[in-house]
Amino acid sequence: MIIPVSLEGRAYPIHVVDEGLGGLGAAVAATLPTGPIMVVTNPVVGGLYLDATLRSLAAAGFSPRAFEIPDGERHKSVATWATLVEDLLGAGLRRSTPVVALGGGVTGDIVGFAAASALRGVPLVQVPTTLLSMVDSAVGGKTGVNSSHGKNLVGAFYQPRLVYAAMQTLRTLEPAELRSGLGEVLKHGVLRDEALFALCEQQGERAVALDGAVLGEMVERSCRVKAEVVALDEREDGLRAILNLGHTAGHAVETAAGHGTLRHGECVALGLVAEVRWAAARGDCPPEVVHRVEAAVARLGLTIRTPPLSPQDLLRAAGYDKKAARGMLRTAVVERIGAVRLEAVGLEELPRMLALLP
Ligand SMILES: NC(=O)c1ccc[n+]([C@@H]2O[C@H](COP(=O)([O-])OP(=O)(O)OC[C@H]3O[C@@H](n4cnc5c(N)ncnc54)[C@H](O)[C@@H]3O)[C@@H](O)[C@H]2O)c1
Ligand SMILES: [Zn+2]
Q1: At what angle do helices 194-208 and 175-192 cross, to 10 degrees?
Q2: How far is the C-alpha of 109 from the C-alpha of 227, rounded, in Å?
Q3: Is pTM, for the whole model, over 0.85?
Q4: 105 vs 31, 127, 129, 156, CA distance in Å?
Q5: 62-76, 163-177, 235-249: which has the minimum mean pLDDT?
Q6: CB contact at 8 A, 285 and 190
Q7: Pair 192, 225: CB distance under 8 Å
Q8: Nearest-angstrom CA–CA distance, 158 and 128
């Protein structure tokens, strides 16, 4: 299955395949001329999939070279990016040399920014190996690293030339990482695809049990949602902000609980519940939407209980002070399953929303 991302002059395909990485080389060769190619991964993903990646690229006529960056969010830094760029340049990177990001969202974001910045931009291939990176970070062109001032503060919009999601790679993923991706899948359903939501609602357990057909359809539909929204508003001047559904309340939980306690996607699911409850309380969506979202969260094996956190800590973590300067909260308001609108509401809505966390 190939899902097109329709950006003028920078359109690219997302391949979603049931298999492993055997077909990667042929897919890259169909998009980019063969020659040297640089593959970047971390020790965990490299240990599992680097050989298959290099073999596939070599069989398609490329001359691949491998590079390693450390694993983990704490290494998503300017230092890791700088070392990687130096390594790539030292290995003879040219404007035409593709760089492949093999791994989850951390790898994709760092390598994407290295590809955006080295020589002012070389062709980038995203090979996401976590569910979250397949349905979210590998699509849409946001790349970057963290700064001491906050997450993702250094980066660039830079679209890949191709995304290759090999579903078999999900088989080695930790269950908690799979769940994290499912939170973002559910979000995509709520905001733009009722059939995707219904799939979560009816087949959630099968996704958790790594049923290939169910997960494959979830990835395809999620990529379509993200691709459509990004095509309408590539640089987040407006509409793209609907992708932050569940993230206002979700980020607050993630930050207040301390990163690493709950996975990002689990917090997004809690945030989704709070935000649909809030929309229903305002009369923007019918109450049954709330029940359906809560039930779907449970069926996906996601937690439906927020850890004990004080309202003050949550407000602080939600960036209340920064938002107070603007006096406004810009948020996606759920109207029904599959439809949201973007609205600027008064800041007094933020504590109300956070109070509705499950
Ligand atoms: N660019 C964007 O638009 C965007 C969107 C959402 C999230 N993000 C970023 O994505 C990052 C989170 O990504 P993530 O959830 O993929 O985390 P991650 O990249 O840290 O991966 C999670 C863990 O799983 C391991 N792993 C990856 N693939 C595996 C596999 N197939 N089998 C076994 N282990 C595997 C990784 O090495 C890592 O230890 C965050 O930094 C976030 O800011 C970016
Ligand atoms: Zn997210």
Answers
A1: 170
A2: 17
A3: yes
A4: 23, 10, 8, 15
A5: 235-249
A6: no
A7: yes
A8: 16
| 11-37 burial code (b ≥16 CB/10 A, e <16) | ebbbbbbeebbeebbebbbebbeeeeb
CB within 6 Å of ligand 1 — which residues? 42, 44-45, 48, 71, 73, 76, 103-107, 109, 129-130, 132-133, 136-137, 140, 142, 152, 169, 172-173, 177, 180
277 to 39, 40, 186, 329: CA distances (angstroms): 44, 42, 16, 17
What residue spans define the domains of the chain? 2-172, 175-354
Q: Is 149 part of the annotated catalytic residue set?
A: no
Q: Count CA within 13 A, CB hemisphere, residue 336.
A: 3
How many residues are listed for the chain in this entry? Answer: 358
Q: Which of 138, 15, 195 is nearest to 203 (CA)?
A: 195
Structure letter (DSSP) for residue 283: T
Tens digit of pLDDT for each residue in 283-307? 999 999 999 999 999 999 999 999 9
Q: Tens digits of per-residue pLDDT, 331-346?
A: 999 999 999 999 999 9
Q: Which CATH architecture has domain 2-172?
A: 3-Layer(aba) Sandwich (3.40)
How confident is residue 237, by pLDDT bands cut at 50, 70 and 90? Answer: confident
The hierarchical CATH code for the domain 175-354 is 1.20.1090.10
Asked whether the domain spanning 175-354 has the same topology as the one spanning 2-172, the reply is no
CA distance 257 to 248: 14
Q: Which residue has the tokens 């809030």?
A: 278
